[in-house]
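Attaching the record inline, Q. Sequence:
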Amino acid sequence: MTARHHRLNQRGAGRTGCLLTLLIVVAVAYFGMPIGGTYVRYYRFKNEMQTQARFAPSINDGTIRRRLFLKIDELGIPETAKRIRIRRSSRPREIQISTNWPETIVLPFYSWVITLRPEVRQPL
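Structure, as predicted:
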C-alpha cells in the first residue's frame, strides 16, 4: 500500500466519524429538548418558591400564592400547579410550600407522563 493510498483511506474515515458524531449530537439535542425544557421550568419555579419562602416572615400567604400564580403563568406550567399548599408551623418554626403537576413529555414514537412535586422548607 502506498503512502498516498493510505492517506486517502484516512480522510474518508475522518469524514465518516465526523458525520456520525454530528448525527449523535443532533439526535441528543432533538430528543433532549422536551425533557430539558420541562426540568428547566421545574427548577425555575422551585427557585421562585424558595424566594417566596425567604420573604415569608414579612408577607402573608395570599401574597405568596399570588406571586407563585404569576410565575406559573409566566413559565407556562399547567394550571393544576396552582393547587399550592402553604403551611406555617410553630415547632419547628418554619414555612413549607409545595405543589405538584403532571407533565407529558412527547418524543417521536413515545410519550410519557411524569409528576413533578416541588417542595421547599424555610425557617421563619
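The radius of gyration is 24 Å. Residues 3-54 form the longest helix (52 residues).

More tomorrow.
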